[in-house]
């Protein structure tokens, strides 16, 4: 009788291991439908389904601004970032990286343009729909498999089988935690856009510089009228 019970447990364990291998291969082939995004409805939501009515987009912006004083500009950028629940990520020499709510991105860029002269602006979007969907599927399968292992563990009467199941449960818990952390990060990045600002200080003119500017303005006044 004990031999039959042991055999059933070992057979169940083999089936579970085979299932995990199959699921790992199957999720890489997952495809979801593609529809144009409606960002006002998308951002700020924790998506629960495996297929989406909207694309999941992460928006970023990179700006280059010429300013009179870098220190003063950094202070102003801190105020802009902290407004409306945004925050500063890093400040390095003459660059600032911040995160702001995605629905405030245009307004933030406009405010940043007031601290100096905007030399360049680039706003880009990254589609993470497939990555998000695949991660959700893997996480759900891990949770189901983990539950089956727990059921096996409760019925185990063999030390070797118990140790093997516990080892698999430990591995599944690590994978579970990593996927949950990844999904939380994606959710956050869909709600908050990353804005990187490179500051360049305006060059101060010397005496000769001002004379040259004066001559240029005089010549322009004579011929361009």
Give a description of the structure.
The protein has helices at residues 2-26, 39-42, 70-82, 105-112, 129-155, 159-191, 207-223, and strands spanning 57-67, 87-92, 95-101, 117-127, 192-201. The chain has one domain. 56% of the residues lie in helices and 20% in strands. The protein is an alpha+beta fold. It has a five-stranded mixed sheet with strand order 2-3-5-1-4.
What is the tally of helical segments?
7
Oligomer: single chain
End-to-end separation: 107 Å
Number of DSSP strands? 5
Shape: elongated
How many distinct folded domains? 1
Share of β-strand residues? 15-25%
Spatial order of the strands in the main sheet? 2-3-5-1-4
Query: Residue share in helices?
Result: 55-70%
What characterizes the major β-sheet? 5 strands, mixed
Radius of gyration, taken over Cα atoms and rounded to an integer in Å: 29 Å
Structural class, by secondary structure, is alpha+beta
Are there runs of 5+ residues with pLDDT below 50, and where?
A: 21-50
- What is the string of helix and strand elements? HHEHEEHEHHEH
- pLDDT averaged over residues: 80
């Amino acid at each position: 009788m004990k031999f039959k019970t042991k055999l059933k447990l070992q057979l169940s364990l083999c089936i579970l291991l085979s299932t995990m291998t199959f699921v790992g291969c199957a999720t890489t082939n997952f495809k979801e439908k593609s529809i144009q995004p409606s960002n006002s409805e998308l951002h700020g939501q924790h998506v629960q389904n495996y297929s989406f009515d909207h694309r999941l987009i992460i928006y970023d912006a990179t700006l280059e601004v010429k300013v009179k004083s870098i220190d003063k500009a950094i202070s102003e950028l801190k105020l802009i970032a902290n407004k409306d629940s945004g925050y500063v990520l890093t400040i390095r020499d003459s660059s600032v990286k911040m995160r702001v709510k995605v629905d405030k991105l245009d307004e933030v860029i406009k405010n940043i343009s007031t601290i100096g002269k905007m030399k360049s602006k680039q706003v880009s979007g990254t589609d993470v729909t497939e990555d998000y969907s695949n991660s959700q599927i893997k996480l759900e399968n891990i949770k189901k498999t983990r539950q089956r292992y727990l059921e096996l563990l409760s019925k185990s009467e063999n030390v070797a089988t118990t140790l093997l199941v516990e080892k698999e449960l430990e591995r599944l818990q690590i994978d579970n935690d990593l996927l949950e952390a990844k999904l939380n990060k994606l959710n956050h990045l869909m709600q908050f856009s990353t804005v990187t600002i490179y500051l360049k200080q305006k060059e101060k003119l010397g005496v000769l510089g001002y004379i040259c500017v004066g001559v240029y303005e005089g010549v322009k006044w004579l011929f361009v009228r």
